[in-house]
């Protein structure tokens, strides 16, 4: 296992936010965590990123205890719903940010950033300012900025939540392509069951601080809490009704 | 056409006091009802460089005080605003930041004077500096409070996960993001200290003669040419700062 989380708990005041969270993630896997707002998804990601401390529990990455490690040394990038591009930097410099912090050589930065921009179909926008880009392009820059430092784990907090349906679908496909290509391990949090099924290789459900991991996609779909089975039934009934011979009359 | 007329009228209204000051500084024997001075002389301007004239020293003192107040208040305000934003009692601290403005600066100076005396800072640049900071620091804190939103925190956290130490996140991300507000805070706190008379006059007990204090002294002595020269000197740094900040002040979007 690349990531092992065991008995992780967190309270804010009297309110338990995470309760004995236990899960694991092997290299190259995408764990899609489905859950409603306020279920503790963001807190879980922040603890993994080192931005929050848990009250109890352990987090191991490749067998190393991660809790004493500061966020900048974890090599885990946390991606928010907003792309949060640095407005004072160009697209090129935004993507190069993590490399410059790591004092990578100039030539290598130019080579790696150019390659990443081409891969994300952003080559023509390298010298543009973030405000000159569309929502989808900004999210792609945000991805590039995260991927270029070759993170050991990518933490995504509803990253496509603010995009329109078509751009969101495109970004999901792009996510699948680049994570497979770069063998990126990720924990993808979403409240959209369709998105979870599209991007995930493994599935979990988080509600009121309790995480349920599913051994297969079948169990994930069949669990009534995910509402996927109910949604399927709804669409099937719609389909049946719509295709009845006398429906249009 | 109407907007041009308006701009022209505003320019004349803004420029006239400067013209009047310049005429007062170089005019000799200018009496009512003469529209212009009968003779011109650079004597008052030349006396600036003469030995024993305190104007240039006053200019230096004012620059030192206002510059230090601007830098310390802005830097302190940035840190304090962040602490307030993250405090559980953010609203209470914010209200407390308004307290120095419940009193006019002169009254504030009278109230803090006993403490300044006990600190052995009465009549010193340090004492005046402390008094001015008591007004400028809350001002900068309130101004910079608007920067510390949830989004600023998210930017900082993102920078940390991208590999920044807390110091790098501050230098590479937060300071550039906050720069437009920081520049405004620097400018405003500089002006606040630069033009202060009441608080400086009380705390300096006549020993720290800033340029503003000197202008009031010359006006009191009815020394119009020197008062005019001192006033022109007084207006020079703010005019320069306005010129430097022109782009930022005219900008429509942040």
TrEMBL record, chain A:
Annotated keywords: ATP-binding, Cell membrane, Ion transport, Iron, Iron transport, Membrane, Nucleotide-binding, Transport
GO function terms (MF aspect): ABC-type ferric iron transporter activity; ATP binding; ATP hydrolysis activity
GO cellular component: membrane
GO biological process: quaternary ammonium group transport
Residues of the ABC transporter domain: 3-233
Family matches, as PROSITE patterns: ABC_TRANSPORTER_1, ABC_TRANSPORTER_2
Keyword Thylakoid carried by entry: no
Keyword check for Ion transport: yes
One Pfam short name: ABC_tran
Name of the protein described by the UniProt record: ABC transporter related
Organism ancestry: Bacteria, Pseudomonadati, Bacteroidota, Cytophagia, Cytophagales
From TrEMBL, chain B:
Annotated compartments: Cell inner membrane; Cell membrane
Alphabetized Gene3D superfamilies for the sequence: MetI-like (1.10.3720.10)
Mode of membrane association: Multi-pass membrane protein
Transmembrane domains' residue ranges: 59-83, 95-116, 128-148, 169-195, 215-236
Gene Ontology biological process: transmembrane transport
UniProt KW keywords: Cell inner membrane, Cell membrane, Membrane, Transmembrane, Transmembrane helix, Transport
Domain ABC transmembrane type-1: 59-245
Principal location class: membrane
Example of a GO cellular component annotation carried by this entry: plasma membrane
Database matches in CDD domains: TM_PBP2 (cd06261)
Keyword Cytoplasm: no
Keyword Cell inner membrane: yes
InterPro entries: MetI-like, MetI-like_sf
Family membership noted in the UniProt record: Belongs to the binding-protein-dependent transport system permease family.
Record-linked PANTHER family: INNER MEMBRANE ABC TRANSPORTER PERMEASE PROTEIN YDCV (PTHR43357:SF4)
Descriptive protein name: Binding-protein-dependent transport systems inner membrane component
Organism (species): Hymenobacter roseosalivarius DSM 11622
């Amino acid at each position: 296992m690349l990531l092992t989380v065991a008995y992780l708990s967190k309270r804010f005041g009297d309110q338990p936010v995470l309760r004995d969270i236990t899960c694991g993630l092997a290299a190259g896997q995408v764990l899609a965590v489905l859950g409603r707002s306020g279920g503790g998804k963001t807190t879980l990601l922040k603890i993994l990123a080192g931005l929050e401390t848990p009250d109890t529990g352990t987090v191991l990455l490749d067998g190393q205890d991660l809790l004493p490690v500061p966020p900048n040394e974890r090599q885990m990038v946390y991606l928010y719903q907003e792309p949060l591009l640095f407005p004072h930097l160009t697209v090129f410099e935004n993507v190069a940010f993590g490399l410059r912090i790591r004092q990578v050589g100039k030539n290598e930065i130019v080579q790696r950033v150019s390659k990443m921009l081409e891969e994300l179909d952003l080559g023509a926008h390298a010298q543009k300012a973030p405000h000159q880009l569309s929502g989808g392009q900004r999210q792609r820059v945000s991805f590039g900025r995260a991927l270029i430092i070759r993170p050991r784990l990518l933490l995504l907090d509803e990253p496509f939540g603010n995009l329109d349906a078509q751009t969101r679908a495109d970004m999901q496909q792009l996510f699948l392509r680049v994570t497979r290509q770069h063998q990126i391990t990720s924990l993808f949090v979403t409240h959209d069951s369709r998105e979870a099924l599209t991007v995930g290789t493994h599935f979990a459900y988080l509600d009121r601080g309790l995480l349920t991991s599913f051994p297969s996609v079948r169990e994930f779909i069949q669990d009534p809490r995910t509402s996927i089975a109910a949604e399927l039934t709804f669409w099937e009934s719609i389909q049946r009704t719509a295709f009845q011979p006398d429906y249009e009359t | 056409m109407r907007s041009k007329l308006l701009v022209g009228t505003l320019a004349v209204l803004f420029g006239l006091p400067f013209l009047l000051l310049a005429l007062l500084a170089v005019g000799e024997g200018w009496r009512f009802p003469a529209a212009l001075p009968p003779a011109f002389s650079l004597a008052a301007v030349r006396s600036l460089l003469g030995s024993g004239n305190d104007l240039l020293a006053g200019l230096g003192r004012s620059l030192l005080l206002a510059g230090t107040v601007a830098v310390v208040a802005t830097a302190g305000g940035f840190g304090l605003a962040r602490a307030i934003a993250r405090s559980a009692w953010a609203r209470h601290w914010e209200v407390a930041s308004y307290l120095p403005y419940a009193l006019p600066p002169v009254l504030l100076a009278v109230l803090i004077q006993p403490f300044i005396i006990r600190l052995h800072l009465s009549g010193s640049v340090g004492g005046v500096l402390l008094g001015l900071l008591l007004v400028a620091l809350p001002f900068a804190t309130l101004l910079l409070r608007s920067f510390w939103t949830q989004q600023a925190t998210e930017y900082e956290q993102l920078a940390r996960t991208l590999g920044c130490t807390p110091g790098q996140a501050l230098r590479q991300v937060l300071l550039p993001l906050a720069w437009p507000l920081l520049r405004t805070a620097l400018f405003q706190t500089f002006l606040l200290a630069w033009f202060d008379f009441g608080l400086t006059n009380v705390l300096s007990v006549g020993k720290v003669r800033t340029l503003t204090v000197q202008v009031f002294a010359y006006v009191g002595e009815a020394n119009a040419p020197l008062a005019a020269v001192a006033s022109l000197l007084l207006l020079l740094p703010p005019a320069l700062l306005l010129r430097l900040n022109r782009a930022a002040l005219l900008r429509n979007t942040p």
